[in-house]
Specification:
Blueprint: H1 19-69, H2 72-75, E1 83-89, E2 92-102, E3 106-109, E4 121-125, E5 135-145, E6 151-161
């Protein structure tokens, strides 16, 4: 015969949770909810920045398309100083500046601080200074300040070849 030990249950005990167990479960649930809420906060901020970056890039792209459609002979008219344009979207003001430097295949901006104003363009790559290159380096930058006061910018660079010159 086998010896079985039986545990006699108290007929007056009721199954359930104690107050401490419920409080521990609520704390664990709260920690999970706080993590989710924090993640949502950062996701919303990231989406807002992504939207601003998309608007600024599209704003620059519009000017790039305009420069591409401008006859090459007319591009040199705004090579000396940046041209400024503005747009407002979602209560944020975007500034756009562009520089066109003839006889150049690559340019940089002097004292570049990722802003849209107070910069001078300098040609950094001219294949042969004795020969006029039938190209212009173009830089377009859109700048904005977000709701937290942080300044951002996006920059597009391209080369515009003279379509009327046969190489």
């Amino acid at each position: 015969m086998t010896n079985k030990t039986h545990i006699k249950e108290n007929p007056h005990s009721q199954g359930g949770f104690t107050l401490i167990e419920v409080m521990i479960a609520l704390v664990v649930l709260l920690m999970g909810m706080l993590g989710t809420m924090s993640m949502q906060y950062y996701a919303i901020g990231g989406n807002a920045f992504s939207r601003e970056m998309r608007i600024a890039t599209n704003f620059s792209q519009q000017q790039l398309e305009h420069i591409k459609s401008t006859p090459y002979a007319n591009l040199v008219t705004f090579a000396d100083a940046p041209q400024i344009g503005n747009a407002i979207s979602g209560n944020i003001q975007f500034a756009r500046a562009w520089w066109v430097v003839p006889d150049c295949v690559s340019l940089s901006l002097v004292n570049d601080n990722n802003s849209c104003a107070g910069l001078a363009a300098v040609c950094t790559s001219d294949p042969d200074p004795a020969v006029v290159v039938q190209s212009s380096a173009v830089r377009i930058r859109s700048c904005w300040t977000d709701k937290n006061g942080v300044v951002h910018s996006t920059t597009l660079d391209t080369i515009r070849w003279n379509e009327n010159v046969i190489p």
